Amino acid sequence: MSCEQIHINHVEYEKKVRGMTLAELGYTIRDCKAAIAAMPEGYKAGYYADEVNYCVNELHRRKSPTNKEYNKVMGTVKTLVDLLQEKDPESLGTKGGELIIAEVEQALKSLMNCH
Asked: From its phi and psi, is residue 108 left (phi > 0), alpha (psi between -120 and 50) or beta?
């Protein structure tokens, strides 16, 4: 096994992350961070750091206010909350209803951030 540093193909990896799902991006970030933590001086540490960087950049690109996909998801969430309020406004005005909305919002933020 060689101890030379492994270099990432920046052009190809940027293309690759564009096709990854949120779950795949999140898994890659967690996996690479764990590998770096386990062997910060390892010969693949720089490669893993680049992977984390590209995955995080992709997540930020998707969350951009100009990103149509992200805005569509958030618009759908707002529509669902509005429909719930319209259907049963009293339940959403209760402490339980507020907790449900807060949990949904937190789950979506967590899904979109993946870290």
From this structure: alpha
Backbone phi and psi for residue 97, each to the nearest 5 degrees, phi listed first = -65, -40
Q: Which two tokens stand for residue 87?
A: 């259907």
Structure tokens at 49: 């750091």
- In sequence order, the 6+-apart residues with CB closer than 8 A to the CB of 20 are 28, 55, 58
- The ranges assigned to domains in the chain are 1-63, 65-115
d(CA 57, CA 63): 10
Q: What pLDDT digit, counting tens, does each position of 53-108 carry? A: 999 999 888 777 676 766 676 676 666 666 666 666 555 555 555 666 666 666 66
Task: Write down the pTM of the prediction.
Answer: 0.56
